[in-house]
Amino acid sequence: MAKEKLSVVKVGGNVIEDKDALASFLEGFSKLEGKKILVHGGGKRATHIASKLGIESNMINGRRVTDAETLEVITMVYGGLVNKNIVAQLQGLNTDAIGLTGADINSIASKKRPVKDIDYGFVGDVKKVNYKSIDKLMQADFTPVFCAITHDENGQLFNTNADTIASELAIGLSNLYKVELVYCFEKNGVLMEVDDDDSVIDFMDSGTYEILKHKGVFHDGMLPKLENCYHAISEGVSRVFIGNPTIISNKEQKFTTLFL
Amino acid sequence: MAKEKLSVVKVGGNVIEDKDALASFLEGFSKLEGKKILVHGGGKRATHIASKLGIESNMINGRRVTDAETLEVITMVYGGLVNKNIVAQLQGLNTDAIGLTGADINSIASKKRPVKDIDYGFVGDVKKVNYKSIDKLMQADFTPVFCAITHDENGQLFNTNADTIASELAIGLSNLYKVELVYCFEKNGVLMEVDDDDSVIDFMDSGTYEILKHKGVFHDGMLPKLENCYHAISEGVSRVFIGNPTIISNKEQKFTTLFL
């Protein structure tokens, strides 16, 4: 029997921060047909609020360390303020949303990132996606909305990368669905020339990706995203779309499709 | 057919604020048999964080007004920090919790409190409890954990009294269950003498309540709680227990039982 389609849509912080862009994106998301899951980043809101609360950002080698106070701010801002306002807005658009962290219904279990040279603090690497529990919500016609927080199954919350959460959810739910993973970000797609927003690569299979990667086409911010995407594809996700937030509603515009 | 039992347990801010008391309470809650729902207050955490963020409490006639900034703090603290940490702790105790505001699965719709003499801002009075949707979660063996936030079904979140949320949930779910409502607070029960913690009234029917109320036995903080409780009982809730947080696990201790 052919699997039913499921869209897992990740939307980034730049959209979250822009009230009008978010409203327009959520309207597009609410009209998306079939089963769907939203994963959102947090944007700079958490940094602003942490700074107002006098919590300093602790950066090591350019990467943020999540100490106990920072985790509290992330839980407040991503898990509360951002997530619940998105849920309320989706309800206003007749989408029966339910906001989740990985702790809720034990949906995403993680373990603390191992300390090698750097201790990232309360950062969790995904260990298990409880896709059967998540599917119970979808079978009840609820639309899950995930923020980028997971837990260790023993009472501890963790900060986890939102792109990773989206790809791990997509992989887990591939056991039950034909999953399409959609990454919405500030560019029109994967670009051949980083400064030319019209240089969108329309289609890219994993072989082409390896060649372009070794040619140095992709910049530092794009590489982990693409690694995430091809990891998802290699683990059973049917295809990945990358583009600006309007791609979920406007099929005529440019975007990148990744496949095996 | 006899209805299945459901416990709706409200725990107050004084427990939420005390790490050990909260851990002990959640252990008791996790062991409570049968279907159950937790409703939590927020404690003074929101006030502390609002003050750190430079948001002044706006009080009119001794009552807090929820302006837009205060609503943001409440959404962060109650909906994010407090709710998600409780969910994670319950997961660690093998209770498959799911954290909710009234916006999630449109579980509790409210409308802005009408402006008479005072405009309370973003304060919502409960309009409808969507007990069928909440029951879908319980049928999937999830344990709902509610914070004191509702929504207008059109994108706006509202601040709502946690005692009221507990009683409205209890009333709504009485359509499907034999509901026992449990209020955990700082006293051992309803007291005959406000300063004597041993003067717990064991049982009180609504007739006795009316008599004692007119005698002036109950102080200002207790009266709205009791009004809430008897309203719940008159609307179909089977009985209400009031006592300190240990009453959910220790049956030998004193508490008050309210009934019709």
Automatic annotation (TrEMBL), chains A, B:
Reactions accelerated catalytically: N-acetyl-L-glutamate + ATP = N-acetyl-L-glutamyl 5-phosphate + ADP
Residues noted as binding substrate in the record, renumbered to the chain: 42-43, 64, 159
GO cellular component: cytoplasm
UniProt main location, coarse: cytoplasm
Gene Ontology BP terms: L-arginine biosynthetic process via ornithine
Gene Ontology MF, one: acetylglutamate kinase activity
Start and end residues of each Aspartate/glutamate/uridylate kinase domain: 6-244
Keyword Isomerase attached: no
SUPFAM superfamilies: Carbamate kinase-like (SSF53633)
Pathway of action: Amino-acid biosynthesis; L-arginine biosynthesis; N(2)-acetyl-L-ornithine from L-glutamate: step 2/4
EC number: 2.7.2.8
Function statement: Catalyzes the ATP-dependent phosphorylation of N-acetyl-L-glutamate.
HAMAP family: ArgB (MF_00082)
Protein family according to the UniProt entry: Belongs to the acetylglutamate kinase family. ArgB subfamily.
UniProt protein name: Acetylglutamate kinase
Source species of the chain: Pseudotamlana haliotis
